[in-house]
């Protein structure tokens, strides 16, 4: 870095520092949920909290917790849980370990071989690398596999299916290629991995191989480990393929806690175990398989970064895939640390991160776990000094997240009634890195998060983390608004928001920490220190951000819920779906016109297979008025609610209001859940049935439209209208309490 | 192919055959330029012409002409010319060879070596392949090089510059990377190759390497030769890097014919020879060079298909490039075959294709050359039987097209005055393949081409070539109009249209003949028969299409020029440029706002180099009214012209009108040419100064806008307005003649 550059940055840092000071001063005029008279005190508390945060702790704790593999059921995982328990206790928490007994498969037999036209036996083992002693722990490193693949022993011709997502099968259909009775090979990415074997099985395939193409997180992206951060030729991404969009958590105890004596399904009846065997492999192991494929050359968009021509098959490549798992009940240790609220002990702010990892998990999840711990430590220290929060805080370290959000799900299911009564919000974190603030969650909490993001300082640029995020958004999309993304799935917020109807957030930093270590033996402390967040500056910033949110929720006079951002966001979702219908209608019209004009036949290459496309059903006009009218009524109620003057409310008004406000999110759920997956109660946010982690907002309606289930779409519109009416009544009743009507 | 498939196709073929019949019957009511009474006779003539076309001739002639390498100056090239001369004579043409003496460099010394941090000596030789004896002709195969690279001996650090086009250098600038004093390595494609060394030299580089990345025409696209059609690891694309956007043709005789005794520039003063040495290489030779680069990882969009991480450098890779050429005057043999017109011998329809190739040139150019010959043979046979065209036909087989459109350019320059007096139109073809009809050219001829495309049958689908092309356009872009593309450069129409102002067309088929053989030793008869147009069905169709166009131009009562499509097209070009100004203005505003917000700094990764972007000058508002008003006047004149009733015109009226009409295109030229390149006279179409082959329409204005030369842009708008006024006067005078005013 040259001198001029440093100067420029220092000047900038200084000016932005002054700006932040000014912003804080301004914000002091108004913090959502706080009476004017209490704002200063809260800000002082937060400043005091921030001053406690030490990145050194994060560093040393990560080194300790990520020293050895610690997937669920390992001795080291248990050690970590017990060590955390001790820590929480030492910080003044009432801490305990809550244990569930969950089904966890350990890979006993993993055989993958190319049997024709040539022979190749897949190595299925990543190599240790120089400079990273963690990668040399041999047998202790969990063999690479996909948890909740079924056992199987299959041999068949191979078909390359790109990412193995719905649009890929549409393309295959156009080429006249059927995967029935075949084994498919799909690239990682493009969707959550569990969708790949799910769809493949639906299409009749008998086995599924998933590999990491160098285009997605290998040498195409950057130098590979240990030279760079990306996946070398032997790296394999582990991961669960449990059908989480149906229900997450223990596969044998859907909807209730996997306690020691719980009733359990027979494993053969567990619907979330895959129907076909599935195995992840490296690109070193994938190349000989792909090279042996013939048949049509894959579409341009399907090509990866391997030095070969990607053919689709089927065959002549034939593969043999044999998988056997040791299916055992394993103890999952959730560490639950409670700091009882000084004034409202039965109003709970929950805060969680998982502690189990696929291997060492320095980034995923330890980087987030240690930030949570440092936050909890600082809050505990303040409490010891008499600054105990008004509401109860519960810090959670979940086990068994990796195989399927199991620790958190079982705990939520087990405590559902009490949670729905007492929980105000759940704030989740997971792996964390260097870069930009990224927050998702309930849109009633958007204002709260935006206000906090406005006063937490970015460690690299000295402006607020909100300003830095918006700077990037302005460049990329022109947007200058701070928005929460909608939660799909992929971490422990899912049982809270989507099953129990508890307002939730998911927080993290990233964008300057790209790599290919995810779920491999290379996600180590050594890797993290070189490529992720070397100084733990963003780990500390995460602790500060989440901690401020927790403290505001804990101490607010009126729970910091804002309905305007929620209404704007919901309206945009509705518009999206209405636009989707329009686009689908135009596409069908265009498609049918092209068929009438014989255009597909005329434009086709006669030397290539041609499947005559069929005319499609016209897209009917749906009646969206139940949602539209409900949203209009809600807007009116929100306007009334917004007219309430917080400063004029008495303590008993506030108490009554908060008792109601804390259950706002619950009014957006429906006991019957979503079609074909009743575990998912939330009517606004869900993971996509065919995207996995990817969110579907207004899922009942949106997925029916996407699947062209028009009758169901209309039913779901009606149902969503009723759910929204529940929220409307809820807001109306809030207003009544405030106005004592 | 299964039975049902054949049935379906036969039914389709039958029904489309009936459609075509019906269309022909309909069209018989109106063919542009023909009086009602003459239409039937013309269509019978064309049918008779079509029935003569034999694809067998194309096959055997290609086998003969592509038997050995025949670049300019070779003995085999001369043999081909003399053999064609004999053929034309045998078909009743008055044929001769017109010879020019042009500078042509033969590569004497080609050394490329990596000298640090490791050592690699580039092989620079493509290997013969099994099953293709043509690739085994050893020393006779012209070594791979870029013609009109300067001699040079340089050694420097290497920089990877993606495609080496202007936007790539903008990206490098943002990264703070300078190519001054370096040797650049660029991928082929992204623009015409000659732009790469031109820009590199402008940026201060001292050498340029161009390689074929497997992503563009190698294994990423499909199987490589000989298994498939694409470029294997040793294939190298030859090609000219002469600065053709300045002027094409002999580098020593700009603007006049390179006759034996012509004055010649000193080679050191020839402005179209590159400023720095440049060499094309294979991806086998490129890989060690790219692997040795360090520095920033290339942007995602830059990555190619090699199994490595693309770094930009500079260095530590250092390369030594030494090139020496044998600069000799070589004879270029243009074969010119004339069939004198029966009624209007001084109205010439010119038709050309080049005959020289870089190596064997089965596809490029022989596939087009043999189609032209078969067309000429059939027309000659008809003439022998008494059906001699009214106007004179001149069939041309150009030499030395590959090194820089030299044969055609010298001929046009040498005969410019007579051509501008007598030429009605020039119809060009070049390499041809299987697939879709593709036609570019003067938009006054669009109606003519569309009408012909409506009656020529696609050999694979049985519908008209127009209907098949439109079927594809409908699928890809929704467009259902038949349009000519605008001519940039890259084949022999350039001197005709852009220098001499003669209405021109460029015709061909393709889209189902992809491969990587272009300008390599693999463009052979064997390759063509397997992957291009195996039955020469599209070669025959090209002969039919071009032949019908030639015969209509030759026999029309009134020359088939239509002004409406021209006006529509020109208006759309003007709109494009006005929209471009708007977009540029918005982009500058957005950019400057981002700088005011400090967004670029805030969003930048402090671990990576960051060059603070500077504020940009606001985009001024240009006064487009000179063009707009002229276009409005032209529209009125066109409406008057369209009111002329062809059937009511006397022969002397027609003769007088045609004498004027044939010079329509000339009115779109300006004697002073384009800024900084006076050779290019046409004010509507030109190859881009920084795109090469890629067209720039309304080039004076558009390029000034793109280069942000606002004063020049305003001057060019005025100049274009005056040129358009010339056309307006021209159309007005046509109307006066017709109305005898």
Describe this entry's structure for a reader.
The structure is a homodimer of 741-residue chains. Chain A is an alpha/beta fold and 741 residues long. Chain A has three domains: 326 residues, Zn peptidases (Aminopeptidase, 3-Layer(aba) Sandwich); 227 residues, 3-Layer(bba) Sandwich (Glucose Oxidase, domain 1); 177 residues, Transcription Elongation Factor S-II, Chain A (Up-down Bundle). Chain A is 40% helix and 16% strand. Chain A has 22 helices and 16 strands. In chain A, the strands form three sheets. In chain A, strands 1, 2, 4, 5, 6, 8, 9, 10, 11, 12, 13 and 14 form a twelve-stranded mixed sheet that branches. A two-stranded parallel ribbon of chain A has the order 3-7. A two-stranded antiparallel ribbon of chain A has the order 15-16. In chain A, helix 6 links the parallel strand 5 and strand 6. In chain A, helix 2 packs antiparallel against helix 16 and helix 3 packs across helix 9. The longest helix of chain A has 34 residues. In chain A, 55% of the residues are buried. The N terminus of chain A is likely disordered. At the A-B interface, helix 1, helix 13 and helix 18 of A face helix 1, helix 13 and helix 18 of B.
